[in-house]
Write a structure and sequence with these properties.
Blueprint: E1 11-18, E2 24-31, E3 38-40, H1 46-57, E4 68-73, H2 79-82, H3 105-108
Parallel strand pairs: 1-4
Antiparallel strand pairs: 1-2, 3-4
């Protein structure tokens, strides 16, 4: 996704949360379009990386080496939404057992 081009009025803010059982929850939201972006890797540790490799062997999508660009980690919510001038409608996307949230990042963006 290094070449994925954002369009529209907003940038993409990004936060990662851990559930009580250790699963990642990725949150994407509108932020200022000119906010600093950084490349983000889908996995924080070698365990998740190895799980990605095993998924590939089981027929999953090759996701182990993906780097996602155009994200602004921990950016503030865009002012139009933060002030309440525009309503922010949350969406929940469950990617399924044989894939990773990182595979669906373009959908969220």
């Amino acid at each position: 996704m290094g070449n994925y081009k954002l369009h529209g009025n907003y940038g993409v803010g990004f936060k990662r949360y851990k559930s009580e059982d250790g699963n990642d929850c990725l949150v994407f939201y509108p932020c200022q379009k000119d906010h600093k972006t950084v490349p983000v890797t889908p996995y924080r540790d070698a365990t998740k990386y190895m799980q990605g490799l095993r998924q590939m062997k089981l027929g999953g999508t090759p996701i182990a080496h993906r780097v996602i660009s155009q994200l602004s980690p921990n950016a503030p919510l865009q002012e139009t939404f933060a002030s309440g001038a525009k309503k922010l409608i949350p969406m929940v996307y469950v990617h399924g057992e044989m894939s990773s949230a990182a595979e669906c990042t373009a959908v969220a963006m």
